[in-house]
Amino acid sequence: MAAPARARQLHTIEEWTEIEEWTADLALRLLPETNGRKIEVFRGSVIVSPHANVDHQTVSTELVYALRQAAKAVGLFAYPEVNLISGDDLFIPDFGVFRVSGGGKVAMNIADALLLGEIVSPGNRRNDIIDRPKQYAAAGVPWFMRVECRNRVPVVALHSLVEGEYRPVAAAAAGTRFVMREPFAFEIDPADLLDE
């Protein structure tokens, strides 16, 4: 998906609040690019959130690196925190595997997503466990992966889309092997996702 043409960027809260109904296109055209806060659009509202804790960032880095190697071997593309357009909504999943390259793009289309994933944050559990999977399932994303780190013990779980809902396929905790065969071969000990 080509980047929307840039218009005048909005920089103040007052400018943001003048817009009554946000869309993914508006956000990508009017808001400044940032490496800081996540800025998403859901049902016409802008959602701004800070980056999660360091464990979350470490898990993301390690997992995306490993996924990228496995996906690349079969002609797929894995990325962290991609701008993802779904109708008028703009999501930023923690990671995703896509059928097409995101090279040179500002955003990807959810129709190109093969697998999307969330790393559960303590302050964002409902969104990561309930809301996001429902949104991804409604858009027809075939696979969903979730990583949880309760008491710093990583658990990886893979879900497949069946009749509009995600059903568990594989799961493993630190010290065991997480193994999946679909949508491509990938395995990892979840313990390898944290620093120690």
Automatic annotation (TrEMBL):
Residues 30-184 form the Putative restriction endonuclease domain. InterPro entries: Nuclease_put_TT1808, Restrct_endonuc-II-like, Uma2. It comes from the Bacteria. This is Putative restriction endonuclease domain-containing protein. It comes from Catellatospora citrea.
